[in-house]
């Protein structure tokens, strides 16, 4: 059986409408295998429900990221500490960020970010943890973010030249910036270690009100041989558990 290993981003679904234990129990019953970006105080509870921790934040922040040398020492310290945590808790991915452009040209940003990642790439390799640079849109959600195109991220990975430095391909963000999602997955999938989903426009549920057709995207991802997690990172407009159920069923292929 060919299947998608599904996860969900904690921040989108854990809210006043549903308590953490109820959310995790429902997710496990639906067939989810992991959780992204959960606060550390919930990790034990997540594992108690038979779920993995798919990805955690590697460093702060989205704006003050790897593309500035003045942040490298701090980011290195944070990444080293979080690599150790990820190894301890069995989380395969640490999410990293380029930082804002703030007038910096893209090629210089790539070269500086590569320097920063090379400081810790061997540590990540030894720990069996992959650093994933998240591709975000700079048009709607993260104004001026530098890692806003797949080509930027791919060139960064090539410069670092480590099997444990790859990309988090966020389908929602890249649909906004460049579209052509399935062709991009086919062409650049060796650089994609983790995926996020959301409906566009609006970053809401994966339904018929948005322009991405996720069953076809899931088939394209599976055709690459990908065996990692697909994590849903959308903000549900209604009941969070119902939204998780619909997303799981839409993306579960056999």
Distance between the termini: 6 Å
**What is CATH's topology name?**
TIM Barrel
Q: Please state the overall shape, judged from the principal axes of the Cα atoms.
A: globular
Mean pLDDT: 96
Please work out how many helical segments DSSP would assign: 11
Give, in order, the helices and strands. EHHEHEHEHHEHEHHEHEH
**Overall CATH class:** Alpha Beta
Give me the Rg, rounded. Answer: 17 Å
**Largest sheet, strands/sense/barrel:** 8 strands, parallel, barrel
Strand content: 15-25%
Placed side by side, the strands forming the largest sheet appear as: 1-2-3-4-5-6-7-8
Number of separate structural domains: 1
CATH architecture: Alpha-Beta Barrel
Number of E strands? 8
CATH superfamily annotation: Divalent-metal-dependent TIM barrel enzymes
Helix content: 40-55%
- Uncertain regions spanning at least 5 consecutive residues: none
- Secondary structural class: alpha/beta
Can you put this structure into words, describing what you see?
This protein has 254 residues and is of the alpha/beta class. It has one domain: TIM Barrel, CATH 3.20.20. It has eleven helices and eight strands. The protein has helices spanning 10-13, 20-30, 43-48, 72-89, 106-118, 121-127, 150-160, 171-177, 181-188, 214-223, 240-251; strands spanning 5-9, 34-36, 52-57, 93-96, 130-134, 165-170, 192-197, 229-232. The chain has an eight-stranded parallel β-barrel with strand order 1-2-3-4-5-6-7-8, surrounded by five helices. Helix 7 links the parallel strand 5 (130-134) and strand 6. It is globular and about 45 Å long. The model has no long low-confidence stretch (mean pLDDT 96).
